[in-house]
Each structure stands twice: as C-alpha cells, then as structure tokens.
Amino acid sequence: MQLCPPCLRSPYCMSLEVADVHEKLENQEILRRYRKLLRTARPALNDGDESLIREAFMTAVNAHRGTRRKSGEPYIYHPIAVAQIAVEEIGLGTTAIIAALLHDVVEDTEIELSELEVKFGPKVAKIIDGLTKISGVFQTGTSQQAENFRKMLLTLSDDVRVILIKLADRLHNMRTLDSMPRNTQLKIASETIFLYSPLAHRLGLYSIKTELEDLYLKYTEIDLYKEIATKLQQSKAARTKFINEFISPLEAEIKKAGFTVAIKGRPKSIYSIYNKMRKQKVPFEDIYDLFAIRIIIDTPPENEKPACWQIYSIVTDFYKPNPDRLRDWVSTPRGNGYESLHTTVMSKSGQWVEVQIRTQRMDEIAEKGYAAHWKYKDNASGNRESGLDQWIGRVREMLERPGTTAVEFVNEFRNNLFNEEVYVFTPAGDLKILPAGATALDFAFDIHSQVGGRCLGAKVNNKLVPISYKIKNGDQIEILTSVKQKPSEDWLKIVTTSKAVAKIKDFLKEERKKVAIDGKEVVERKLKQHKLDMTEEVLGEMRIFFNQKSNLDLYFAFGRGQLDTSEIKRFKEFKENKTEAAPHIADTKTVNHKSIKGTQTDVITIGDDLNNIEYSLAKCCNPIRGDAVFGFVTINEGIKIHRTTCPNAPEMMAQYGYRILKVRWTDQHEAAFLTGLRITGTDRIGLISDVTKVISSELKVNMRSITIDTQDGVFDGKIMLYVSDTSHLEKLLTKLKKVQGVYGINRFEN
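Above: the chain sequence. Below: its structure as tokens.
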C-alpha cells in the first residue's frame, strides 16, 4: 500500500480519520450522558458514592466495549439510560445506580458475578443476579419468560430495587423499540402490557405505568395510536382554553383561603382513551373526559387531610359534584400507597371534569411510587405502608409455595396486580385490605389458612352470611369455624384471592395425590398390557386425548374411576390410526419455514420453507386478510393464526414467545373471512332492509347470521359476514355508517 505524503490523503487514510472522529464523538457523548447522570444523582450521594459509581461506569464501559445495540448505538448508552431513569424518574440511590450500570454485564460479557461482589458488595451482586436471565434448555410446556420473571421476583421481599431497575430497563427498551424487527416489537410490547405495566401500577409508579401502556399501543395498534395522538394535539388549544377558564375562579378562591397550590390540567393517556373507546364502543369525539385537573397543595404533613377536604369544599362551591364519583384515598390509601381525593364535577359548559386533590408528598408518591413511599416512611402512618407490605407478603407466600409452576405463578401474580380494593375490619377493629370481589371465605384465608380451611360462614355487621358473601367497604367481619369443616372443589368457585386459591388447591392436591397414586399404578399396568411405555410423550398425548391438564389429573381421573381403564385401549387405537397428522412442534426452532397449507386457502406465508403444517384462523379474534397477525404453535392443533390485537395475544407472546411465528398474507384474493359487526342506532321502519341491502346488494357480501334487538326505539344488531380483506371491510363500514339511523358500528371478536 502506498503511503501518502502529509499534503495528500489516500481514501484509506481518510476513512481511518473519519472512523477516529466518529469514535471520538461517541466517547464524548458517553461522557456527556454519564456526567448528566452524576449531576442528577449528586444531591442524594454520600461521601465515597461518586467514586463507586465511577468505578461501576468504567467497568461497564470496558465490558461492553465494541458492542452495539440494534440501532447501531454503543451498547453502553443503554445501562447509562437505565441508571438515569432509576435516579430521575423513580428516585433510587447509589446502590441502584451501580446495579443499573452493571445489570447486563454478567449476562452479556465474560465478567462473573463473583467479581462484581468483590468490587461492589453483596447487595449489588444480589440485585444483578436477580436481573440476569436464566439460561439453558427448558422442557416443552414450560415458559422461559415465566421462569425469568419468577427468578426476578424471588428477590422482591429482600430488595425491591431489583423490580424497580427492571422496570427502568423495560421502559428504556420500549422507548428504543423502533430499531427492533416487527416480531420482536410485538413480543416485547406484549410482555410489557401483560406483566410490567401492571407491576408498575401495583408499585405506584403511575408515570412509568402510563408511558409503558402508551408505548405498547404505539407498536401494536400503530394507526389507532397515531390517530388518537393527532386528535389530542389538534384539540390541545381548545383544551387549554377550557382548563384555564375552569381553574380561574378556583385559583382566586383558594388563594383567598390562604393555600399555596399548583393547579394543572393533564390529558388522559392515549392508552386510557383507547380503552374507553373500546369499552364504550364510541369514537374519539364521544369521549368526554379527555383530561383531569390536578390541585397540588403545599402544606405540612399534619395538615394534609383537612387541607384536601377544604380544597374539595371550594371546588364544589363552584361546580356541582357527581356523588357517585367521589373517591377518598386520603383517609384510606390504596394498597400501593396511593393517596388522593378524586371527584368529578360538572363544568359551566356542561362537561364532566375529574378533579384530583393531593399534597406535594402525595403527588411524589403517586408519580414515583415505592421509592418515594420509603422516602416518607418515617412520617407515614401504619396504614400508609401496610398495603404495600401486605402485598409483598402475599407475593412472598406465592414464591415460597412448593409445586407451583412458573406459568401458574405468573398467572396468580397477575391476578394480584390490577384489582381494585375493599377495606374491611376484623371484630377487634383491625383494617384489612382485600381485592374488590373478595368473599367472606377470602377474608377467612387472609386471617389464617387454618381459619379459612375450617370456615363455615361469617357474621358481617352482626348478620349471618354464607361463605360466598362478597365483602363491601366498611364491613366488620367475624368468621365462624368448625373442626369438621374442610375445603372442597366448590370453594374454588367462591374465592378470588391467590392466597385462598393456593391454600384450597394445596389441600385438594394432597387429597388427590392419595387417589392419584392408585391411578398411576392402574395406568402403568394397562399401558404395559397394550405394549406402550409410560414416557412423557405418551402421557402428554394421553392428557390431550382425555382432556386432562396434568399427569396428576390424569392419574386422579383413573384412580377415582372417572375414566375407565378400557378407554386406554381406545387411546392406543387412536394413536395407531393417526395418519398424515401435523408434525409435533415444540417451538419455532423445529419449523422449516415455507408456505403453509391448512383448512383455509393458502393465504398465509410463514418464513421460507414450511410444508404440511396445519394452520387455522383463531376463532377468538377471527383474523382477516390485511390484519396484523402472528402464528402461535399449539401442542395438538398445528398453528393458530391470531390478530396482534387479539385479547389473548399479550399472554401468548409474554409467556410463550418461543412459540410465536412471523406471519404475512399472500396476494391471493379468492378467500372469504368470517368477521362480526355490531351496529347500534335509532330504530325506524325499513332500517334492517337498508342495512342488508348495503351488505348483500351493493357490496356483494355474504351474511352468515344477523340478530337485531330493539328496545324503546334503540336497536342493537350483530351480523356475522364474509369479507375478502380489511380494505373490503373498511368499504362496508363506510357505507353502513351512511345508513339513516345508524349511530355506531364496530368489529367484534367472538
């Protein structure tokens, strides 16, 4: 290679120079981000903390050197961003900063956990261990995602910072999801809405919870997300004018009363608006409460409660309140520590407005959740921390329960996340917080598992009630027991709390095990007679054939006599007669990608080389050509095609990501897809004729069924019909909306 003189530059030298400049700029950006992190954290740092953070930063920089994210950015940007979120948006300190900077080091580099423990201590090492994914081979039917989630939660009772850093990690991953492929976007977004957003809610991190929900929608309902965001932006000026007019008289009166407050209007999140549109089946324009007014009072802790009620009195002097919409979480905080006074009032223009009244301390807890809760721990009353402590106690009990699979644990855990709460009292006057919908039997198990197991009934406010009684706010409950009483299968239909469900199942399992031992011997003996080995594969096929959820259920059914041993012969014949069946698919790795042939016409392509694999369109969401879809590998029914917005999609993608296939529609236009439309409006003579004319005559659409219900001049109709794709459906919807009397029309799933 010819060397160039100082006055001339070869292309090679110039490319090296550009590379050097680029690397220098990146290093400057890394330092800028690190210094911003230090500036944010510095007010809360103790002596020596800054040098520890610097050492963690240098360790992370060296460990991730040369590694880049999918976006092309240096990987070190990510741990710095996670640490920044942990400090700035959650309010964590030095230990969390160090753990956040190092959270991917053990998983992604050669550095061992023991090395980090020597450098930074056992607390940091334990947090990083909780954040490190489990590696290895997982048995068919298990879920790696669920196992990793359970492992992370094992540290919850010891150090909640593991969960908080994981939420910061997930938030940054969601903020930078643009660079990921579509199937990865869907998987990560689904995990987020299924587990991490509810978890943020339960820990009181409302800002993070809201952003995670909005980002989920951004990647799953792309067009609808953009539509709502655009309409919110377009209505911003009118909304600001309305808010200013609404708060103007309040500010003057509150100031006259001697309070220092900040009053602001905040728009509802895009996800919450989307939920209202979906649940109420109305367009954006018909959602009336697009924002809330928040009044934040600067007052000392001892004056918080009277101050909130005094502000409430001022608000209701100007605006008429809705008596059914008053929520007092000041007197009795929510289980996650949330405190606020909520009311909905009628504005002068005839519009309902939600008003939230809280103090600065309450507002910080509402925004930063668990971390802020502990900041104010010394000044808090017992009730203010009991809800969170009780919840963590329930999670600890779930984690310590033997024999629970990771998937069962995650499902139970989720049931504890989004429930509203009821506040009830023991005979001694102690406050208990339980999920809304809980029964007297749930209350009994919450007191003690033995009390629950022997529960006969209850006295609520001195009145005798059955164990199925649904408890209400303010109830005082006394449990009646008997040593002769014991749990039964029917109790599972009565209880709602995971603790009660688990304790009843534990008791029933012990009872079932005794029967199942005999049943197992029967199954093994009969399989031998039919020259079949009792392998896991055979037992799995038997579970499916006999519609049993587990081996224990299978053995129990034979042991109890619910299944006759002669049925095993029928199973063998079925097994032998299965011909040209779909090959068993454990996960996407066993699939040779090609065009799928299934019960419908060949309209779906998966990858490059997939032959003779059964697929069918899922009946839970009825996908049609043009919908965003994915394939889910089932155990016994080939591949099911679901819409990405299917109600079951978040759970499938979150728990069984390894069984998700990328799916796209081919260009065929011959197939017809069944879909459902719900039409509402005002009834008139000839309406049904006009609707069916548009469907059958104008657009040549075949209907499978139509049901119309009219009451007091209002009609509600459901039509099942066949369309060729989403554009065909859109034309139909546009035409039907123009029919006189039709007020609302939307697609529904079965």
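The radius of gyration is 30 Å.
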